[in-house]
Fold:
Amino acid sequence: MNVFHILWRNVMHRKVLSLLTILSITLTTGLLVILLQASDGVEQSAEKGYGPFELTVGAKGSQTQLVLNTYYRVGSPIGNIPLQVLQDLKQEPEAAHVYAMTAGDAYNRYPIVGIEPDYFLTRYGDQRLQAGNMYARTGETIVGAHVAKMLDLKVGDTFHGSHGLVHEGGKSFDTNSGTNVNSTTKDQEQEQGIHPDEHHEDNTHVEESSDLSETHLDQATANRNAQEHHDDHEHFEYKIVGILPSLGTADDRAVFTTVDYAWHVHGITHDEDKTITAILVQPKSLLGTQFIKNKYDKRVDVQAAYTSKSVADVVNVVDQGTELVSFVSMICVVLAAISLLLSLTSVVTERKKDVGLMRLVGKSRRYVWSVLIGEGMLLTCVGLVFGLLLGHLVTYLCASSILEWTGVHVNAARIVSGEGWLLLGTLLIGFIASIGPAWKVYRVDPLQLFKN
Structure:
């Protein structure tokens, strides 16, 4: 009877305890794999999330918000800047590529982004579309691979956009979108904390009634403007002419069209009234990056942000949260090691006579050592394999949701570098946990094992 057969028989002899030990190792390993996959996804997204565009020019405000909205489609734009800024940047000798971006509208919660078609060639190189062609005229769009998959979109489909971040029921969280266009005057008074009959009963407070009338008039005007704003979007139709390949960035969950779409939607015809959301700049050199940033930071209407620095700031915050999760995971590792230790200690206690018989029939101490250590390592290996499979399976099932809400791609098929260390570390912990119980029997005289 070979050693492996003995190990398997011993494990199956104590099915419940062995199963619990394997389950403990599986869950711990699976949790660590999910953590490693998520961390790798964040790092990969940070590394290639903004391409070669080291500078981002936009409205004054948070640089982090500017960068996250421009490249990761997270949050809302902080504001718009004059179109003239784009013309100025294109004249800069230190700028290799300059692309304008307009944003603020959405289709079924996915952002509609106006950007020049050459942006894709500069950032991703010469890649083929999944289907169709690149947009060329106003109203034509291409959709990201994730958007096309989630909404089952095809070339030739048409749709209408909405202003702001629109969610279920067509309600917008944008303050200018007028979600309560049909609210009655009575509802407006209740929102102001005013009983609907109070100002009718007391005619002596003329000034108060006047203020209320002005408030209602302002509210009615805002609602009317919002309704007109909504009608603008309803009258402008988009047509899908192409579907992007999977790019592994937040661009997979966006809809792209020409830069001028917002001007057409809102009927803006004069150049002095035209604005854009952000400008993506690929400088020719590091010195060129610094020169352009310093120059445009001095302007009162715009700011220039180092894209990599803003992304690094976000990654640092994420890393702090990851450290906390890692600490909890280490506690789980310790608990799994304790579970394995208790399981093997129980084995030794139950099988003292079996070990004594092996010694009396001529089996060497090395053989006995191999059997005891081998049982612990077998449980560890089985739990480790199932843990790796569990971690990658959960990552695969959650990858679409992670991309949907965070813009971070997690590739479940990718074996990240940390998994190698996890493999070695788990085996080492299993070996260490097996040493104590094995040594307890290894050093005892075989005749002593039959006493009592």
About this structure: The first helix runs from residue 3 to 13. The longest strand covers residues 95-107. The two ends are 29 Å apart (CA to CA).
